[in-house]
UniProtKB/TrEMBL annotation:
Residues 4-241 form the ABC transporter domain. This is Amino acid ABC transporter ATP-binding protein. It comes from the Bacteria. One of its GO terms (molecular function) is ATP hydrolysis activity.
């Protein structure tokens, strides 16, 4: 089943066409990595998927066959969760930070929340020792895990990641990617779709089922991960991959 169908999406801000007739489909359970040069429109595209962005002048986005505008925007954003580059930590322990958002959920029993908590910390790779630590004292990688667990507490259907490793050093980033790989398997079981922007191509090759490459607001390629990295027939992809290597 198709989760997202993006059809001729065009976004203009000021005088500038940020996205130019972007079309692609994301299937249930699929993990798509979005790559491309800085300024290509990657964040704009991701934010359009849960209506965090403005400026759409053309095209449409369907989620589960329904236009995004047909959803209540708060419900949409709970189900299509956006994970920012850097997780915001509030005063309090890691555990309090993780439980923070979900306490306002209606129609969810305490028992269900406890169940979600146990799952969320497992899937986000949080150790029991971390839970009592003041969130601000955790490392960058640990804070990202707390942010993801907090999001998982809301039981989202789709996860949107905008360069979640951008603020992490290489070692932490690699460790975090292994967590994401485990999370990805859980998401696949739930038939959740995920989209993740990354500027580190090794992350895309490690995590993605499919790779979407954007350049100047246009789709240059949308290919299964192996084809993207091993098929030089698309000249712009080949040049992009070449530029990435020293
Ligand atoms: N309000 C705006 N007015 C004009 N240009 C904008 C505005 N917001 C973003 N842009 C431009 O849109 C382009 C795409 O931005 P973005 O989606 O953040 O790219 P990426 O995430 O790929 O780096 C950039 O060139 C940026 O300068
Ligand atoms: Mg960006």
């Amino acid at each position: 089943m198709t989760a997202f169908s993006i059809q001729n999406l065009t976004v203009v801000k000021g005088e500038k066409k940020i996205l130019d007739s972007v079309s692609f489909d994301v299937q249930e359970g699929e993990f798509v990595c979005i790559v491309g040069p800085s300024g290509a429109g990657k964040s704009t595209l991701l934010r359009q998927l849960n209506r965090l962005d403005y400026g759409r002048i053309g095209g449409q986005i369907l989620w589960n066959g329904k236009s995004l505008e047909e959803y209540d925007v708060h419900v949409l954003r709970e189900q299509v969760a956006y994970i920012f580059q850097k997780a915001v930590m509030f005063p309090g322990s890691a555990e309090e930070n993780i439980k923070m958002g979900a306490q306002f959920e209606h129609n969810v029993t305490q028992q269900e929340l406890e169940g979600r908590f146990v799952k969320a910390i497992r899937e986000a790779g949080i150790t029991p020792e971390m839970l009592s630590v003041e969130a601000a004292d955790l490392s960058g990688g640990q804070q990202q895990r707390v942010g993801i667990a907090r999001t998982l507490m809301l039981d989202p259907v789709v996860l949107l990641f905008d360069e979640p490793t951008a603020s992490l050093d290489v070692e932490t980033s690699n460790k975090f990617c292994k967590t994401l790989k485990v999370l990805k398997e859980h998401l696949k079981e739930k038939k959740s779709a995920s989209l993740m922007i990354t500027h580190r191509l090794e992350e895309a090759s490690f995590l993605a089922d499919k790779v979407l490459m954007l350049e100047e607001g246009k789709v240059v390629a949308f290919l299964p991960v192996n084809e993207f990295f091993n098929n030089p027939s698309n000249e712009r992809v080949a040049n992009f991959l070449k530029a990435y290597k020293l």
